[in-house]
Structures are given as C-alpha cells and as structure tokens.
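Form P-L/3: holo structure prediction, ligand iron/sulfur cluster.
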Amino acid sequence: MPITSIQAQCPHPGPADVDSATAVSLVVHKGRADLFVGGPCNNYCRVCYHGDGGPASGVMSRDEVIAALGTLALDGRVELLVFNGGEPTLRADLPQLVRAAKDLAFRSIRVQTNGRRLGYHAYARELVDAGVSDFAVALHGPRAEVHEFLTRVPGSFRQTVAGIRNARGLGAAVIVECVVTRANYRQAPEIARFAHRLGATALRFTLVRPEGRARALFPSLVPNVSLAAPYVREAVDLALGRGLAASAAGFPLCVLPAAAGEVAARRAIGPAEAGLSGGGVFGPPCAACRLRAACGGVHPAYAETFGWREFAAVD
Ligand code: SF4
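OUTPUT (holo model):
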C-alpha cells in the first residue's frame, strides 16, 4: 500500500473499529508514528492483536517503508517513530530501514518486538548502532511457565529476557509491555520487580483486547477487571517507586484510578499513551460519574461478558 500522505488512523481506535478488516500500514497519533512493517512472528501469542486477521496484519515492502519515512520526515511532526509488526526483527532489512530513518533525522526510533532476536547480542548491537533508541518488548510473565503459556513457544522466555538484558547493556531504553490476562494478573507485582531487576526503563500493563488472534480467545483470556486491578495497582506503584515510568491502560478509572505520576509516565513511554485508554462504551453507572469525560469507558465485549456490576460512579 503506497503511502503518499499521513493517515491519522489507529489500528486500536476503539470498539467501533474492532470488526475492521482493513490492513493498516501507518498510524500517526499525537506525535507518534507506527509503521506496521509486518512479517510473520516467531511467537504464537494468545494475546496477539495482529495475528489471524488483526487490523495491522499486512506487510510493507522496503520501498513502501522508505516512501513512508520520507513522507513523515517532510511532515516534521513525528516525535517518536515506531517500527511495529508483525514481528519487525524477523525482517532481514530492519537495520537498513532503521538507518534510513536515522539519516532522515528521526531522533526517537523504537522497535516494538517480542525481543527474542535481541537475545543475539550481535543483532541487538546492529540495531542500536543503526539508530534504535528504545525497544518495547512484550513480556507477559516473570517466569517461563506464565510467559510461555501466553506465547505458546517453549524457550521464548529465556530469549526475550536475554534480549532485554542485551538492549540495556547496549544503552537502549527498554519498555516492558505486559498484556494483562487471567493467566498473569496475579503476577503483576512480580513482573514489576522482575522488570526493575532487568533494568527496564518503563513498564506498561494493558488489559487484553478482543482484536486479532485475541478476539476469539477473549472470553477465556480477559480477567474481571475488579479482580485484576489491585494487582496492577500494586505493580504500577511498585514500579513508579523504583523509578520506572509505569502505567496501566484499558482499565476504567473507577476500578483503577490513575496513580500520581502515571500520566507523566504515559508521556515518557510515548506521546500516544498520554491519554487514557479511550474507545469504550458507558453504561448505567457512568451517567452520574464525574470522571466520565476522562474515562476511556468499558470495552463493549467486556460489558457483554460481565455486565456493569463492577463499575460505580465516582462522586
Ligand atoms: S463509572 Fe463509568 S465513567 Fe465512571 S469511571 Fe467507571 S466506567 Fe468510567
């Protein structure tokens, strides 16, 4: 899909677009540009938003990526450029694409990855030398059995952890990204302690969304948000206390109020994360809620599954 102008589309814009089958290659939102360069993935995550027909499941050719970079550079409003997937590290030309972005004077260049190829030190170095400033690495558990239940690939935990260590050792920032599910919410504080021990610079929890591959599995993956919220709250507070930029997304404010420092942490993680989760629906408790304007609401698939009993207007 040739890109000649910036399209302000989002692959995760909210429930209204969950059914969209349109392939998305470029998303620009609040100073952040995500290039969905695509490609297959070497994990098979239950929580994947891209796999199995997710909105960003196409593949960009090298020429399309280079053209998009040129368009974005000319526009001049992009503060953070993200090479997103599929799994971008499986593209043989990723270092060249990163270098092309660097040559176009993009200052913050992120690779969104499962982190496994970064476990090869020479490869991690190649990307950092090409110009990657930070990696956003999916880590869904503090131990192999939890992480690999969700990735469904034996050995993926060890490689991802090695990748985070390599990236930090090379001086790149690392955002640990954890999708919150029934399988891992109780381990959220342990994930925060583990991310800190690995030297991560930021930690982001996101409630699983019914998109891509996660869509069919959503009823068995999504936890009751009121059960998960105390664990995520503890984890975010713990991480903030240890100096990580930490935040949680996808939780309505009545079950998980934003912590002091969390909005600033969202900005540190990326301009597009500065807002609340957004895109949800509002139910009977929301009518009199003073936080309604700031709240992202509740995903309709969640409300359909669990109803509104967990939510209460905030006076
Ligand atoms: S009651 Fe509704 S509007 Fe208020 S915080 Fe909860 S979900 Fe958001």
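COMMENT: Residues 252-254, 282, 285-286, 289, 291-292, 295, 297-298, 311-314 surround iron/sulfur cluster (CB under 6 Å).
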